[in-house]
Amino acid sequence: MKELKSKEEFLFGKKNYKWMLIGLAVVALGFILMAGGGSDDPEVFNEAIYNFRRIRLAPTLVLIGFAIEVYAILADPNK
Predict the structure, then answer these.
(1) Residue 19 neighbours by CB distance under 10 Å
(2) Which residues of the chain have pLDDT under 50?
(3) What is the pTM of this model?
């Protein structure tokens, strides 16, 4: 009886993992940019919560990061 030698491989290639880490970093950067803008005193409203960075830039970076993650999953590692 022949012994079947199983060749252990990772599910994704090196290229896929590189893109996954890049996507994760972009998502993390987006969430970091979204943080803050609050006020120490609950009676005082801080307008900084509505600035460009928190309303436009950070969510855009998160969505771009998720798109990079989708690309990393779907990319052919053998190409």
Answers:
(1) 19
(2) none
(3) 0.81
